[in-house]
Amino acid sequence: MPISDTAIKAAKPRTDKSYKIPDEKGMYLLIHTNGSKYFRLDYRFNDKRKTLALGIYPETTLKEAREKREVARKQIADGIDPSENKKAVKESRSAGSANSFEIIAREWGLKKIDDWDDKNNRSKRMLERNVFPWLGSQPITAILPKDILACLRRVEDRGTIETAHRTLQICGQVFRYAVATGRVDRDITPDLRGALPPTKGGNFAAMTDPKQAAPLLRAIDSYTGSFVVKSALQLAPLVFVRPGELRHAEWAHIDLDAKEWRYLVPKTKTPHIVPLSNQAIEILTNMHPLTGNGRFVFPCARTPNGSRAMSDVAMLAALRRMGFDKTEMSVHGFRAMARTILDEVLGFRPDFIDHQLAHAVRDANGRAYNRTSHLPERHKMMQAWSDYLDSLKNGAQVIAFKAKSG
After folding, report:
1. Taking Cα atoms as reference points, which of 116, 237, 110, 125 lies closest to residue 177?
2. How far is it, in rounded angstroms, from Cα 50 to Cα 84?
């Protein structure tokens, strides 16, 4: 049987020798004659029996020890020795390793990525899994393009070429940060251009047919997981902003009375206005008692004070739990859904739609429209869009796509 907190607290030392209380999957609690209690994991790597220290109780809780065990098991499955990786991480964090790749990468993450502290942050996970075990402890000045390529080949061998490309991009960002902070002379990642097979490409998965959208919207309304995640997914099709913009929505930028959400688009550094329909206002009004005292409308579940935004995988994971796989729908896909149906079914002007998508829109003289362009019309469009989505959910007859002329 797995060990329990109660059993750990009740366990007494023996005067003659240390003894073990087993948990599961090779983990156990080692109790010494002096009463100290240590979490340990026995495992095999390259046909050798090894033991990994997981922490000392009570400084390390049972839950934390099990989380470390699962990380170690994942490393073993990926061909990484957890003990050697632990030594490399320790060395990279030592006072004499301030110029190591891992130290610089973590410094970059803390300064450049808002939700870096979230253990599910995608960029951090990719570095921890694909790069740090091999290059983390090395001085960044000693790393060569072939060293990075070796890490990328391991990712490629797992059959995830898109992840290999993304890992290379992240390494490039770390190197450029190191250049800017005077730790290295140049970014070496461009030397690997063409070294990886091209990605398959393609757009984000999206449901652009009203017949597909209706069951998706009903499934979101019936979602039984986190209320915060459910509310974010309900709002996503109504505002069709980029997923990162939705996750980082701040209460200070939302005017419920004016029915507008005003913020700076991170991708283009331009101001943007999102008119809020009655349905969007209702979702936000219901959220306010829960998260209104914090910064973010949709905070991370592990920060009750609302100081960090929701994880970048929370909404996507919810879609997957609802049964929509990666070939069917993505969170970004709500933008394509709106773009297609507003144009081809509801017949709104393309420039109104592009304004609302925060695309670069210019007038006949090549001048960029400002954020307030066609704002009254966009308010009407957003309300009509929300009403149309409600009609889909309620089983109204689906309007057929308009035939494109000529």
Report:
1. 110
2. 11
CA quadruple 344, 347, 351, 357: dihedral sign: negative
- DSSP state for residue 19 in the 8-state scheme: E
Give the separation between CA 254 and CA 297, rounded to whole angstroms: 9
Architecture of domain 210-393: Orthogonal Bundle (1.10)
What pLDDT band is residue 401 in, cutting at 50, 70 and 90?
very low
Lowest mean pLDDT segment, chosen from 24-38, 156-170, 225-239, 240-254: 156-170
- Looking at residue 369, its pLDDT comes to 52
Q: In what order do the strands lie in the sheet with 270-275?
A: 254-255, 260-265, 270-275
Under a CB-based contact definition with an 8 Å cutoff, are residues 172 and 157 in contact? no
CATH class of 5-72: alpha beta
Q: What is the pLDDT of residues 170-185, one digit of tens each?
A: 999 999 988 888 888 8
Which pLDDT belongs to residue 355?
A: 83
- Per-residue confidence (pLDDT) for residue 259, from 0 to 100: 95
CATH topology of domain 90-192: DNA polymerase; domain 1 (1.10.150)
Calpha distance 88→368 (Å, rounded): 51
Mean pLDDT across 207-223: 85
Would you list the domain boundaries of the chain? 5-72, 90-192, 210-393
Paired with 21 in beta bridges are: 29
CA 287 to chain centre: 22
Residues marked as catalytic: 242, 267, 332, 335, 359, 369
In terms of Cβ atoms closer than 10 Å to its own Cβ (0-12, 13-18, 19+), residue 178 is buried
Given a contact cutoff of 8 angstroms between Cβ atoms, the answer to whether 371 and 270 are in contact is yes
With contact defined as beta carbons under 8 Å apart, do 239 and 261 qualify? yes
Map 133-187 to HEC letters.
Answer: HHHCCCEHHHCCHHHHHHHHHHHHHCCCHHHHHHHHHHHHHHHHHHHHCCCCCCC
Lookup result for tokens 């101001």: 271
Task: Write the CB contacts of 120 (distance below 8 Å, at least 6 apart in sequence).
Answer: 311, 312, 313
DSSP state of 96: G
Please check the confidence at residue 368 and state whether its pLDDT lies above 80. Answer: no
